[in-house]
Amino acid sequence: MRCRVLQHAKRKERGFTLIELLVVLAILAMLAGLVGPRVMNQLGGAKSKTAALQISDFEQGVEMYKLDVGRFPSTDEGLEALVSQPSNATGWNGPYLRKSQIPQDPWGRDYNYRMPGQHGDFDIFTLGEDNAPGGSGESADITNW
Q1: Residues 45 and 133 sit within 8 Å (Cβ to Cβ)
Q2: Does 117 have pLDDT greater than 70?
Q3: Its pTM surpasses 0.85
Q4: SS3 143
């Protein structure tokens, strides 16, 4: 009799029951449902913040370019003039950015540069995730104006 009790006790210690596993999975699913959307919103906001910081760096570079060369880069020269000297830029003392190339926006597209700008001396912008003017959230335009 005692041997059967020991065998029964050993069988119980082997693992989890199906009910216990289902309860744990249900709890994990509820946590993922509550936390997942918040994490995804934070990731989206990070892309917009990254674009805004990069545009701010470009702005500073363009201003330093103007101090050295006496003018802003033309639309044709673009932001590339901040890392490699254009042929007609006497006084160029760059590169004006820490990186040796112009990064793309967080959505994998080139930033837009326009001089003269429609909103200031020059415009630097990205059209956001949807790559269309306007929008809200991650699809909102990120600009220097």
Answers
A1: no
A2: yes
A3: no
A4: strand
